[in-house]
Amino acid sequence: MPREFRGVWIATVANIDWPISSVDSWEKQKRDFIGLLDYYKDLNFNAVIVQVRTAGDSFYPSNYAPWSKYLTGKQGKAPATSENPLTWMIKEAHDRGLEFHAWLNPYRATMDLKTEELSPEHDFNQNRNWMLKYGTKWYYDPGLPEVKEHLLKIIKEVVDNYDIDAIHFDDYFYPYREGKLEFPDKASYDKYKKSGQSRDDWRRQNVNELIFALNQTIKSSKPWVQFGISPFGVWRNQSKDPKGSPTQAGQTNYDDLFADVLLWMKNKWIDYLIPQLYWSMNHRLASHRTLADWWSNNSFGIPIYIGHGPYKIREDSDEAWKNPAEINTQVNYARTLPQVHGSAFFSAKSIYQKNQDIAKLLKNEVYDKPTLPPSFEPKQKAIIEIPVVLDVKSNLNKTQISLEKPLDPAIRYAMVQGGNDLASLHDAVIHTAWVGGSRARFLEVASLNTEYLAIRWIDLYGRIVQTQVFQTPKLSRP
């Protein structure tokens, strides 16, 4: 099976996917999260994109943001546990062989105008001069250098302290336009613009500078941590720019959100892109097919994963979403495109809580076998010491793999499969032993008291370092 990204967004804002309720106990929230992971693991997904910063808040102890009200019911209130929720979520994902992409919203400061409910630690109260009111929300002013520096610290805190696979942003940069209402950043524009620079170009420059600096921040700390972005599905309409797509989108990345996504890919500032193509295959104004083609042809070599919108199934005015095969058709079409290497689905509850027929079709017809997400090449080559297995022991509860020497820290995890003949190993259930770069001497997985055992060693960049196959009776088996 070719490598393929199979991700799902787990949205925490407004408790869309998880936690189901902010007033549930931590133990209940844990059970619900495990339910999501197990469900998507069973569907042969290999990544979760979990929202850990929704609007100036956090789902982890932070020096720069208060606890999220979506986790504890009140912003700034710590969860009633000694566990770090983010550390725990990452471990649970990794234990199931799922990559963990930490999803943060950079510029959105609030979800409404009820600022009296904000924690004293929230930036609205700590740094009011950073805030701009637009429509029914408050936003960080992207034009302020101190805002950029603050956001870099937030991202660095997550990268430095957590064993994440990626930092992930969605489509929210400058806010979507609300009618003719102008975003009120004239003061910072007048102060920081270059001579002759238009306001639109200045705004794009602000976002570009953040994306470039974030790439530098992430890679200087942990070069194997990816930086991925999931922008709105249309860069520009062809009516505005001949390089754009033949679409009629009401708003676009370049002209309205001031996100010059093509520049980021051209300059290799990001590691993957998931355009949100939440339209049906043949939509009149923004065809999924047309846009998938366009992004594949304009990727500058950056891996493209297609963003699908199962939240529209049987909920949208577009009749195409009544067809149970719409999602499978999109996934299969994506697989025909040379620069497209997978898919992601918004959001978790759209398939988990309803549309079980769609889930069944997805697993039976397109995700019938597990696979690894794409790997990527490090900038600096390194020689990795191949692990030497001394012994394998199995009992009714677990299989333990003993190594001759501590693992090379460049080894991130092992995929272990068991079978009673060699032919069955290829499609056997994958058990993941995550070591996260630690120099482990022993690995443990669920009991695999089988004739043969296959171990694939995966490095920090997702590459298979080596595959080893053992006839376990030749090793010690109690």
List its traits.
about 475 residues; alpha/beta; TIM Barrel; Immunoglobulin-like; 2 domains; eight-stranded parallel β-sheet; four-stranded antiparallel β-sheet; about 20% strand; globular; disordered C terminus
Topology (SSEs and partners):
Elements (H helix, E strand, L loop, with lengths): L4 E6 L15 H17 L4 E7 L15 H4 L12 H11 L3 E6 L18 H4 L4 E4 L2 E4 L4 H17 L4 E4 L16 H7 L6 H23 L4 E4 L23 H5 L3 H6 L5 E2 L14 H10 L6 E5 L17 H9 L5 E6 L2 H5 L3 H11 L22 E6 L3 E6 L7 E9 L2 H4 L5 E4 L7 E5 L5 E8 L4 E8 L7
Shape: globular
Q: Structurally, how many domains make up the residues?
A: 2
As a percent range, the share of strand residues is 15-25%
By CATH, the architecture of the largest domain is named: Alpha-Beta Barrel
* Average pLDDT, all residues: 96
Helix percent band: 25-40%
The biggest beta sheet is recorded as: 8 strands, parallel
Number of helices: 14
At the first level of CATH, the class of the largest domain is: Alpha Beta
Radius of gyration, taken over Cα atoms and rounded to an integer in Å: 23 Å
In what order do the strands lie side by side in the largest sheet?
8-7-6-3-2-1-10-9
CATH fold naming of the largest domain? TIM Barrel
Structural class: alpha/beta
- The CATH superfamily of the largest domain turns out to be Glycosidases
The parts where pLDDT drops under 50 for at least 5 residues are: 474-478
Number-wise, the strands total: 17
Separation of termini? 34 Å
Regarding quaternary structure, what we see is single chain
